[in-house]
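Hi all, posting the design record for the shared folder.

TITLE: backbone redesign
STEP: 1 of 1
STRUCTURE INPUT:
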């Protein structure tokens, strides 16, 4: 059955490209946060271990929401490491940095995801896709808040 939600196919595909980048950033940030949860050490272990767990669980749910929005637009969502690697702007961490560097990397990651979200909102608004713009506005606010909370640990 053909989709008819009031957004032209080319516009849905353009919005889905933006969302695919946001999904890749979200999933990459999820992986990095989960990695840091497992491997954090130092005097902040207890608080960071718990904080990272809350954050990676939120990112996991967010990735699902973004992927489902792509499907709502009748486009297939990327779902492999190689696809995410090509789409994301989040730098991979191959080692185990000190806790302060972990926090700094997550601040940077959330700021990158916030910038991707802003770009996605602009693309959604240009396509008349209020549903995507609304959903991604929530994602933007979450990334900004998380970046602020993490940044506060470094002062």
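Okay, here is what came back for every position:
SEQUENCE:
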């Amino acid at each position: 059955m053909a989709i008819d939600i009031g957004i032209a196919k080319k516009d849905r595909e353009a919005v889905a490209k933006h969302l695919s980048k946001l999904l890749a950033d979200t999933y990459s940030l999820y992986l990095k946060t989960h990695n840091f949860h497992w491997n954090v050490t130092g005097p902040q272990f207890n608080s960071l271990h718990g904080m990272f767990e809350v954050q990676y669980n939120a990112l996991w749910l967010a990735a699902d929401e973004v992927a489902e929005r792509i499907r709502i637009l009748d486009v297939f969502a990327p779902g492999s490491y190689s696809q995410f690697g090509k789409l994301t702007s989040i730098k991979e961490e191959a080692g185990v940095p000190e806790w302060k560097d972990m926090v700094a990397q997550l601040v940077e990651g959330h700021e990158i995801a916030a910038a991707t979200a802003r770009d996605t909102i602009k693309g959604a608004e240009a396509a008349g896709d209020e549903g995507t713009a609304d959903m991604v506005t929530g994602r933007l606010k979450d990334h900004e808040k998380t970046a602020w909370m993490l940044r506060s640990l470094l002062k």
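COMMENT: The chain has five helices and no strands.
Let me know if anyone wants the other runs.
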